[in-house]
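RETRY 2/3 - previous attempt timed out on the joint model. Re-submitting the same 390-residue input unchanged.
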Amino acid sequence: MDESMKVNIQDFERPLFVGKLICLAPIDREKDAEIESKWTHDASYQRMLDTEPARPLSPAQVKKKYAAIEKEMEEEKNRYYFTIRTLEEDRLVGFTRIAWISWSHGYGAIQIGVGDPNDRRKGYGQEALKLLLRFAFQEVNLHRINAQVPEYNRAAMNMFKKAGFVEDVRRREALNREGKRWDMIHLGLLRDEWESNLIP
Amino acid sequence: MNKNIFRGDLVRFTAEDPEVMGKTFSKWDRDSGFKRLLDDAPPMMWSSEKSKEWFEKDLEKEQNHSFFFMVRELEEDKLIGFVDLWVSWSQGDAWVGIGLGERDYWGNGYGTDAMRLMLRYAFTELNLHRVTLGVFEYNTRAQQSYKKAGFTLEGRLRSELLRQGKRWDILIMGILREEWLETNRQLLEN
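RETRY 2/3 succeeded.
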């Protein structure tokens, strides 16, 4: 047998969902809803993530959202949603997901959010991204990952570029926030680009 | 202000009953070449009854974010395609999609005329700030048409598609309100 074909069982034992600071975990509908509701009362959180008008959500609304997410995961089978929790206290700090997966073309879109401003710039998002990319390329077997970042979200831009993402498209003036026009940036990472950056 | 914004030089926009649209889309579904220019999902074929059901459901919903028009050519008033616009009101941005199911009308300016009508609608009726579209790398006919209508290439989603055993980009194009105004001011002054 060719050496390279040999299966090393330890490769399969390597945890997909555990990093050094954080882990990826399922939703805890009751507890997480209380926390995420608080995050949405700071508009900056939602404004960094997407283009919908920011609005505060009650715990009941967040719970409903969780139910919808899991229903979609179950029925559409084209998305993966994880919460991000600290390893130390198993405390919820954010979420991450791959959505809009096209199985026939092998692409998907990722999003990462760290809710509490005090939890940002601690490397939680960066580590979650690392885990998610490995999941996307080695488990879901995608060919390309998309991410959309508003021009004003510098931290996210830096994080994605550090992970090897390339700016593919700049949709000029696609956003209107704080009375100003901003570009929406579409980033992309291809499987071979990710593999060539990989530190074993 | 008396100009009919639903009528161009070659085509006009119409609203059709679910029955008519169901039959039409079910017929167009059988053209895989058309479907592979239109959408990246593996083409599915639906009965006219199923298509009709979707359009009937649309009747129940308020269409605040989607502006969908059927396209008829002016000479024989034949149904040849559709245009659809999805609007983000808070950002003033919209994605547009267009398809001519009748191949006889490809490459003769009908699509460009329909797109021009849609842009006029987007900028003078909906008062949007910009319009976006995505087009497949192998669909060069459409790319030319969009350029003629005033769109600018804003980038490429590299290697997003896998078709005929090859990887292809999706091109993203956009047009800003002021760009549209520069070349279409006369439409407003008449």
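Chain A touches chain B through 26 residues (CB under 8 Å). Closing ticket.
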